[in-house]
Amino acid sequence: MYVFKTSGVCSKEIRFEIEDDIIKSVEFVGGCPGNLIGIKSLVEGSTVDEVIEKLKGIPCGVKSTSCPDQFTKALELYKKKRNEQ
């Protein structure tokens, strides 16, 4: 289980599990429940790269980031740490 502390969004953290580069589970702590449950449903079963490609850079209103964008930051950090091992 990986935990990512978000920045600049309503959700406080994102918890996720990855197995063989596939997102097995994701949980957003805080934020807009309906939207985040929808994101969870859409990304589980997808590869890390697919999700980064689809969600990276999505803003939230006037904010330059969003919960989906923060998830891509978490996934990019996961990939960076994985490649360093």
UniProtKB/TrEMBL annotation:
The reactions it catalyses are: a 2'-deoxyribonucleoside 5'-diphosphate + [thioredoxin]-disulfide + H2O = a ribonucleoside 5'-diphosphate + [thioredoxin]-dithiol
- Lipid metabolism: is it a keyword of this entry? no
Entries under InterPro entries matching the protein:
CHP03905, TSCPD_dom
Read off the Pfam families from this record. Answer: TSCPD
The TSCPD domain sits at 6-78
Domain of life from the UniProt record: Bacteria
Q: Does the keyword Cell division apply?
A: no
**Enzyme nomenclature, EC number:** 1.17.4.1
Which of UniProt's keywords are assigned here? DNA synthesis, Nucleotide-binding
Question: Member of which family?
Answer: Belongs to the ribonucleoside diphosphate reductase class-2 family.
What name is this protein filed under?
ribonucleoside-diphosphate reductase
Q: What is the lineage of its organism?
A: Bacteria, Bacillati, Bacillota, Clostridia, Peptostreptococcales
